């Protein structure tokens, strides 16, 4: 399994033949695999998506960023415990912060490569010289890290893929193994060796560096915005080259006939679309929610080069799919689906899928329509956890914590119920709901007024939330009080 972070579907040749991004290996991948055209996120952002993958169920209804919980089923651990060797190669440094520290131990073995973004890697007492940076963030650790990168081979992505290739070279003749090759790129900052930047000549912006947009409205000039887009494109081309090395190994060892290959991402990223940068704070536009997703299944060689329209959600579906591939059953708590039938003949696995961030607007899609729910209630919400840790420390408001009754998936365990001030999303919708037909209007330029579709999707949303045993206050927020 090859996993990227913040990889944009609409910038890859298999999804957009008119893209200016040079990514021939993604096109090559599509020729070997099944390409999913209706792939959507579930829980967001980074660690919530990874918890979805481990557990095969949405977690954003109950908790935000946090660890694997004591009551969680973990697919890599289930594989490991059943005799399938599982190995993680990653430079995704959030795994090694307090809010992610229980993920990597679920694998048979793991290795990590340091230096992405704000990873506190190298020690430097003296303040680093941070060049002019348009967005003004210039995190200290990032500039210390960049000083260690002298050539393309020094970059964490390069080291991560080399480790994955080493695993393949050493173990490709063995049976019953799973390797997860996961890189933080093309997540911001769009740091890449200058040789890759040369593929995308940028306008002169007075020597300023712009490879780390802020999570905010676009206020930069068109020239400045283009520099950021070009830096992102250069990093995607680097990702493409790394993917190509995996495809070369598949060719070299004739692995297409006996090895499942999965390529996906946790979410996309706004590069100025809708006048905004990044993710998390605006609504979950198509550029963020509608993701690239490929599976090459050796049991179904005739599906190579085929496309599928079934609505899938990789973050919750991949766990059941991997378990099924190795002859294991999903657990009763998993709501994700084995995609074997969808790969083979486009058999649908769901009528609709919910997605979003904890405490923000609820979203649903049936593959044609996307509905961003109205907010009927905007009072306090709660986190439910037994490990009250977030990205770099304890969750806030622990002094308000009480014990909650067990949920259907907590194995009889009570959780902490922690008060959380209502989180309003930074969009212009207010409390209104908005509907888009993303087949007819993929750029979401014109919202629809169709009460029948809204009512149908609202009912589906309530059904799916209840299937996940959503907390009462989450249901109340979208008007589902019954």
Decide which structural class fits the backbone: alpha/beta
Helix content: 25-40%
The parts where pLDDT drops under 50 for at least 5 residues are none
What integer is the average pLDDT?
Answer: 94
Strand order of the largest sheet: 4-3-5-1-6-9-2-10
Number of helices: 12
Provide the gyration radius in Å: 22 Å
Percentage of residues in strands: 5-15%
Distance between the termini: 41 Å
**Main sheet?**
8 strands, mixed
Number of strands: 19
Overall morphology: globular
Q: What's this model, at a glance?
A:
This protein is 27% helix and 14% strand. It has 482 residues and is an alpha/beta fold. Helix 1 (24-32) crosses helix 7 (222-252).
Short key terms for the protein model shown above:
482 residues; single chain; 12 helices; globular; alpha/beta; 4-stranded antiparallel beta sheet
Task: Give an overview in words.
The structure is a single chain. The protein is α/β, with parallel strands linked by helices and 482 residues long. Helices cover 27% and strands 14% of the residues. It is built from 12 helices and 19 strands. The protein has helices at residues 24-32, 46-55, 75-81, 140-146, 156-171, 194-197, 222-252, 286-289, 314-325, 340-345, 451-467, 472-477; strands at 2-4, 34-36, 85-90, 109-112, 177-182, 261-265, 270-271, 277-278, 293-296, 307-308, 353-355, 363-365, 369-372, 381-385, 389-390, 393-394, 402-404, 415-420, 434-437. The protein has an 8-stranded mixed sheet, with helices on both faces. Strands 11-12-13-19 form a 4-stranded antiparallel sheet, with helices on one face. Strand 15 and strand 16 form a beta hairpin. Helix 2 (46-55) packs parallel to helix 9 (314-325). The mean pLDDT is 94.
